[in-house]
Amino acid sequence: MxxxxxxxxxxxxxxxxxxxxxxxxxxxxxLEVMSAETIGMAQKGGSVFSFLxxxxxxxxxxxxxxxxxxxxxxxAFEPAEAVRMLPYLRDSGAVIVNSTPVMPVTAALRASDYxxxxxxxxxxxxxxxxxxxxxxxxxxxxxxxxVLNMLMLGAAASGGYLPFTINDAVAAMKRTVKPxxxxxxxxxxxxxx
Amino acid sequence: xxxxxxxxPVIERELTYICGKYQLPVKILGKLTGNVRTxxxxxxxxxxxxxxxxxxxxxxxxxxxxxxPELPVRPPVLCAxxxxxxxxxxxxxxxxxxxxxFCGDIGCYTLGxxxxxxxxxxxxxMGAGVNIAQGIGRIEPDTVCFSFVGDSTFFASAITxxxxxxxxxxxxxxxxxxxxxxxxxxxxxHPGTGRTVMGQIVDKVSIEEVLKGVGLKTVEVCDPxxxxxxxxxxxxxxxxxxVKAIIFRSPCAVLIEPDIPAKIDENRCIQCxxxxxxxxxxxxxxxxxxxxxxxxxxxGCGLCTQVCPTGAISCxxxxxxxx
Lengths: 193, 323
Hints:
The complex is a heterodimer. Chain A is an alpha/beta fold. Chain A has helices at 15-28, 79-85, 105-109, 117-126, 135-142, 148-158, 166-176, 182-189, and strands spanning 3-10, 32-37, 47-55, 71-76, 89-98, 129-133.
């Protein structure tokens, strides 16, 4: 069966790398993978999303994109971005969301009180299967603000939402990131074991 | 026939041409005829709707869900620690109260148009800024004309404009924002980086030597992260007659290892929010109603420490001591 995954968040959170790791670990399992993502301008604090489609050997994928209502899983790095992309979720789909908001410069300039809590509330009301990850306090306990992407991937793999195990995710990470960050990343990936 | 294509309607236009040339009785529909939206990317949903419309099928109805809370808008902005923010802010500060125009160009620094910097008055195409600035100088001689161009765009298409400005006796200041890379498109090398696309290490082409070579008498190199120095340089150089250049040289924040994030001394911060309202750096946020540093974004560049009126923000070793 083809699995449709949507990753979303804010430029700079490590979404594209996470997408690559999911693709890499899935390909190691013999799955066919197609992906497409926003690039360029969106890197600079804009909304970023990445489409991923995984298929077994008995299926072919003809396009990396999918329509609204077709995502089996949304991994959202930011609460408002989860809500923005929610129309893509299928009825029985799952959402894994980081509760820590990223305040846009425009909101800071207008002294807006956007806290993300209203977004999490909306998700809980409208989606049956929501896992909320407290990204900022987990990052603090691991000791780096830059491991959020590994936490999100760890939560998805540990929750059984991906066609591979945490060990596969760790192996994919070690193939991809600089060796000096491997230990820290592994700690983050294994946070939900 | 319905043409659905990304970007310009190239196939549609060619088909329309062929149909006209050979007088074929075929109607070509697409972006030119308003049957496909002209801007924005095609999505599965938009393609489905376009085809349904064309075929006369019933349109797929979107399911109505509870309306979500108001979502924050996220326009792209200059990164935390971006040296362009410092350069723009220096020019803005130096030109306060003066009639000035800021001609932009294509690159990350086009994002200098966003509030609160608001420092890109024109943006047409690569290399246009330096030419528009000299043009405005002809029409409005009482305006101080600036042109901003990145190092990569300078080599690609601003040198001819600089030659034209010098030769035709324009009065303008060319500001080269040299972050030593082609940042917007993914850090490709250019003639100023000393590395070819094949990875060869070669002699750099010097921006200042090129500018002096085409006849500029004043070419100053300045570190924009030293704010007061940068402001003085802008005031001094822009006051000269003729074509002159300032090269703001500081590496792209993405290319260098971030420093320790800045710290805000809660006892000294008066919540005036000048750091936010002047710089618009994504690394400075409001948390529980108070100005705070987002440690995951802040690179410790130190620009905000030079803007804070009470010296409440510190960077580097100083901020470690506060811990």
